[in-house]
Amino acid sequence: MPTGTPREAFEEFIHECENVARLRPETVKGYRAAFDLFLKLAPDANMENIQDKKYVTNFFTAILTRSRRVGKDKFVQGVKKSTTATYHSKLRSFFRWLKQNKRIEQNPFETIKAPNVEYLDRKFLNKEDVHNLFHACGFKIQWDGDFVRRRNLAILAVLLYCGLRKGELLALEVRDFDFERRQLTVRGETSKSKYTRIIPINDEAFITVQDYLLLRRARDIDTRAMWVSQEEDRSLSKDGLKHTIAKLNVESGVKFHVHQLRHTFATNLLKNGTNLAVIQQLMGHKDIRMTVKYVRAFPADEMRNDVNGITFDGLL
Questions:
Q1: Residue 144: beta bridge partners?
Q2: Does domain 6-110 have CATH number 1.10.150.130?
Q3: pTM
């Protein structure tokens, strides 16, 4: 008979995630959120009944049918398919660990198929969107001084021209920029893939980042963090970046999130004919299948010339 409680087993799983697998805090946070919701919707869960496929299926039925608050007064039913897929992925990892460590005999997720999600938010920003963002950041918004303005311009440039993830951006240190070789290092300990990668710094990003660093060096700043908060000798926080992006959304008229700049980076590499293996390396994807997803999101108009290139006389 299985012993202990699901919560006790989960805490042991998390301990291994943090200290053996050395997963990022954001990843661990995602595991906790999924498991906490699982226990909330299944308070009578024990090590025996969670092996039952029907029990786990009831959890997914509950998240699709329950009413939840969005904002102050609005209520909606269910969650997006992508959210369901996230819960499935996080819980599946935990249940796989349970079976591997002989805490349960049956893993119900072995026969529960994950939702097939089409990520419609893999949307790139067009030239006009990018222009409006940089114009708002550089000229329209009254930031708290020229230092903050140049910092935010440099952040936009690194996101757009280097394709970094949000966590990778915030973890950057000054030492990660090699201006002699004109390259940027994303260290393995800060990357989602856990691999260190080196990205050539785009010429426009190079100039923008140098402008920011000139002002940074003129200040008596001790922090190694690349992006300094308005309180100066402190790294820019996630909330600080969130506030900056929210302000850009309003003032530029472009509704976007940070990851869309990464999508824009990948899409324009494709447009320029960059090899998929090179894009995979620049993006830091472990699996090239992730890179291929950007091909699926490539706009049809950009492929028109390729299709028109097929003629009767040119057939094999």
A1: none
A2: yes
A3: 0.73
